[in-house]
Design goal:
Number of helices: 9
Largest sheet: none
Low-confidence stretches: 1-7
Oligomer: single chain
Number of strands: 0
Mean pLDDT: 90
Shape: elongated
Helix content: over 70%
Distance between the termini: 48 Å
Radius of gyration: 18 Å
Length: 171
């Protein structure tokens, strides 16, 4: 049954992709590629990175910066998963530049938190704190409760790790 479900899913994706090409809807093509990339369960994420690279080109061609930010975030997350931290950081920085211009606080907070995570796992705790603090400020100002909660948790965790339990309790 699982193979049959995959076949049906693949058929529907192919049909949606064909129709988006006929309609000339670059944003829909990019959206489909983003979702297809998200289904890549392989260890090397090769297909995901290829689909996302194509999606990024489509978003840029369509001059759709929100789409571009979404693709860049997906690229960053995949590279982070693969342990390619400098490349992930490069994509997160692009997201932060783009979302700053757009006022897109949802993607911005996500990128700030994940950038903080990169620094946290590299034991660069001060940089992690800086990014978590920015995420806290941005999410609080924009009403992003998930981002605010996660930033608070992350700040508490890093302060506890560096031996400042009283500061950790403030968060």
């Amino acid at each position: 049954k699982r193979l049959g479900e995959q076949h049906a899913s693949s058929f529907h994706f192919d049909e949606a992709f064909r129709l988006s090409r006929i309609a000339g809807d670059k944003r829909l093509e990019a959206f489909l590629l983003i979702n297809l990339g998200a289904t890549d369960q392989s260890e090397d994420k090769r297909d995901a990175l290829n689909y996302l690279g194509d999606a990024l080109e489509l978003c840029r061609t369509a001059d759709h910066p929100v789409c571009e930010a979404s693709v860049l975030l997906n690229l960053a997350v995949n590279h982070e998963f693969l342990g390619h931290h400098p490349k992930a950081l490069h994509y997160y920085e692009q997201v932060l530049r783009l979302t700053g211009k757009l006022g897109d606080h949802g993607h911005e907070v996500f990128a700030l938190i994940h950038t903080g995570e990169l620094f946290f796992y590299q034991s660069n705790y001060q940089k992690a704190i800086d990014y978590y603090t920015q995420a806290l400020s941005t999410s609080g100002a924009s009403g992003n409760h998930w981002g605010e909660a996660y930033a608070l948790y992350s700040l508490g965790r890093v302060h506890e790790l560096v031996g400042d339990p009283e500061k950790a309790l403030q968060y």
